[in-house]
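Why should sequence recovery work at all? Because a backbone constrains its sequence more than one might expect. Tight turns favour small or flexible residues, buried strands favour hydrophobic ones, and helices have their own preferences. The token representation captures these environments compactly. In the example below, the structure is given first.
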């Protein structure tokens, strides 16, 4: 029930954020509209809406260098593919739908939930989010600092939806929990969610910015 209420709240905020972003923005290429909203003032969430008649597949993402890893844990209604992986050493998640209309509705609702940051502290919500990352105030991976592990292995980790404690990630304590994905692109029947550049999770993503060019060139 709590998860349902949160998703409804995110869905209601989605349109408001897009409308605010449309005024504040942002125009991309002739084929895309870029919205800037959500997150904090200095590091907003960037949303790109790209009209395309092409029906994209997982193979199209692999063709530009995306390396799929695993399926998402949570359910994503309407998807034919819901998986995370890496592109240019940064995590990128994809949601593929049967139609562009589904991507613009179901996909936007899902992507807003997975990039949602709380107003009070900018961190990830306690539930309803599939991928989170641990960062200290300086942007360093908290898990890496505690374990000495490789940053790719631990900087983005599953938040177990059934775990008793939302702060417990792969058995390690995470005091600063941020959504792994900051930006997202809706292009045709696909939604692509991107980790920010550098160590700062709130930075804009080059992967999302250049995705339209890579997929259509």
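From this structural description, the recovered sequence reads:
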């Amino acid at each position: 029930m709590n998860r349902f209420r949160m998703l409804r709240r995110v869905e209601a905020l989605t349109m408001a954020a897009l409308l605010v972003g449309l005024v504040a923005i942002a125009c991309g290429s002739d084929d895309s509209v870029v919205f800037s909203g959500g997150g904090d003032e200095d590091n907003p969430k960037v949303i790109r809406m790209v009209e395309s008649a092409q029906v994209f597949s997982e193979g199209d993402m692999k063709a530009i260098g995306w390396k799929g890893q695993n399926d998402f844990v949570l359910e994503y209604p309407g998807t034919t593919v819901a998986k995370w992986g890496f592109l240019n050493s940064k995590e990128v998640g994809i949601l593929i739908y049967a139609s562009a209309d589904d991507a613009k509705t179901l996909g936007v609702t899902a992507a807003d939930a997975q990039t949602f940051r709380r107003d009070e502290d900018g961190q990830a919500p306690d539930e309803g989010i599939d991928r989170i990352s641990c960062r200290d105030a300086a942007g360093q991976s908290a898990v890496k600092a505690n374990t000495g592990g490789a940053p790719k292995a631990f900087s983005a980790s599953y938040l177990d939806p059934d775990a008793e404690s939302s702060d417990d990630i792969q058995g390690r304590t995470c005091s600063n929990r941020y959504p792994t994905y900051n930006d997202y692109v809706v292009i045709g029947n696909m939604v692509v969610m991107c980790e920010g550049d550098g160590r700062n999770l709130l930075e804009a993503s080059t992967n999302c910015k250049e995705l339209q060019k890579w997929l259509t060139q």
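A few observations help interpret the result. The CA atoms of residues 6 and 128 lie 7 Å apart.
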